[in-house]
Amino acid sequence: MINRHRWIRPYAWSDVLPWTIYLALNAFFVWYPDGSMETAARRSGLLALTNVCFTYACPSISLLGDILGAKLRICRQLHHAAGFMACVESVLHVLLKWTTKGNIQLGERRMVYGVVAASCRLALMIESIPIVRRLVHPIFFLSHYILAISAGWALGMHLPRNPSGPWYLVYPTIGLFASTCLAAIGIVFYRNGFLGKTMEQGHNRTAG
């Protein structure tokens, strides 16, 4: 019993079907209808960025559950699924680009930043494996945030600066993250009474 779930988290069979559908849909959109390597490389990058949007939607999974009114277990599963697919598709994007271009020139800044972003995402996935997480447990959350910020920064440096770049996926994510951060600050103020006194005084004036 002690060594159970060393490599994967506890799960129920009802969790397998949604994961299978999610993986199948991502694989479908990468390779269909045009299964060429160049198209698959571009699509895997866009899908990785799409999955990343959910992982950066909120600074804390528990806060996301509070805002959505969802169970923490469901929010964790969504975060794990989106993070896993973002990692797989980021690595696939780099490998396919490497295959189609022959090699990745270290002089190409965008390519180097793409490799850095994919490496950070791979490190995020590896440290989330239960047996690895136990080893790095004292610094897990700190390292998780550092790797996530590093991956986001490298991704921003990797994206093309022209208007046709996929920035339409980045800006909503930044706006959503900023909104949830403001919501978190408001919740902290409210629960600690910073807003309560003002609201109570206004209520007393109205009642008087």
TrEMBL record:
Keyword Acetylation: no
Keyword set, alphabetical order: Ion transport, Membrane, Transmembrane, Transmembrane helix, Transport
Gene Ontology CC entries for this record: plasma membrane
Start and end residues of each Ferric oxidoreductase domain: 45-151
Pfam family for this entry, one: Ferric_reduct
A GO biological process held by the record: intracellular iron ion homeostasis
Membrane-topology annotation of the record: Multi-pass membrane protein
Name this protein carries in UniProt: Ferric oxidoreductase domain-containing protein
Taxonomic source organism: Aspergillus flavus
Record lineage: Eukaryota, Fungi, Dikarya, Ascomycota, Pezizomycotina
